[in-house]
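Cross-check.
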Amino acid sequence: MRLFGKSTALARPAEGPEPWEPPPYADPAAFDEQEIEVGSGPLAVPGTLSLPRAAGPRPAAVLLAGGGPFDRDETGGPNKPLKDLAWGLASRGVAVLRFDKVTHAHRDRIAGISGFTMTDEYVHHAAAAVGMLRAHPAVDAARVFVVGHSAGGKAAPRVAAAEPGVAGIVVMAGDTQPLHHAAIRVLRYVASLSPKAAREMRATMKTVEEQAAVIDAPGFGADSGSVLGAPASYWLDLRDYDPVAVAATLDRPVLILQGGRDYQVTVADDLPGWRAGLAHRADAQIRVYEADNHLFFRGEGPSTPADYEKTDHVDPQVVRDIADWLTGVAAR
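Predicted model, tokenized:
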């Protein structure tokens, strides 16, 4: 888990030397890209707009990266899953806007902001991105969606609740358990992979368990300082936020995607929350990709942290399903 630059064993590996190559399902001749700026003032962030060359107006999507100071591509090791997704969707006629997280573009400034929360991390820039797409002449203003991965998926319902212009949300591996509890569960999973991993993780696990207990303590408050790499305000806000409950109240369609081999956000621990909370919604769909890990990379056997270090691309079926859902919902 890596929130504002301070890492634990859950962090993605750093960017590696291997250059990213487009996935087979991307057609660079089908769209153009331009650099843009999202937001205003000192916390504006750079981004990229991928615009299909086919005649519009067309549906559009704002992409939200997972937890950590990620760039617009969600770069980790040799992989760029959000760039995979952006190019795949743009090749299928969907305009896509992705941007560097404020915790990536302005890490030093963020460290000095008191009261920082998930809203500051995601909502302000996501809402600005939605507004930019709705104002673009090549985009249908009534068909702008938010697609979030991991913590970005968890934040997506809050973005839609704050921005009425969002036509619907796609949640990719969005966690429903408290983040600090999930961190312990994931560390235990990694430690269980081998005796060596168990030895190497012992000290980290003890630290995370102790700090998670601080967050759960009755006296935890705004003056409790930084815990697990984030200010107390961040944890207090998360403690009061239920993404499933917020999604259940939205009057817009929802698509939940889950990898069957994901050990960070799991079928057993997180997906039941979405199933139960959205059971009454006829316009909510849930799809599980049995062979996919947390990044929606296909594979076999138990998923491990080493999976993230191998060059790979987002499952083409996931890209097709998102594109079909966005265009299908838009058509309806």
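Residues 4-15 have pLDDT under 50 and may be disordered. Strands lie at 31-38, 45-52, 58-64, 95-99, 139-149, 169-172, 226-227, 230-231, 254-259, 284-289. Passed to J.P. for a second look.
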